[in-house]
Design brief:
2 helices, mainly alpha
Length: 56
């Protein structure tokens, strides 16, 4: 369940990034970190559900 909340928080971060007033370089690295975090959460979800079932 906590992974869903991580996805929500990361999605909101991506949504508000244009209004944070950061430089282009900071935006680039933030998007890399957010992307890796989302990929990590998704990979963890896949590893937990290797049996083929869905937990949603």
């Amino acid at each position: 369940m906590w992974k869903h909340w991580v996805n929500v928080a990361l999605g909101l971060l991506v949504a508000v990034m244009p209004w944070l007033g950061l430089t282009a370089n900071v935006h680039q690295w933030t998007m890399v970190v957010v992307g890796l975090a989302i990929a990590g959460v998704a990979a963890s979800f896949v590893m937990e559900n290797k049996g083929g079932g869905t937990s949603m």
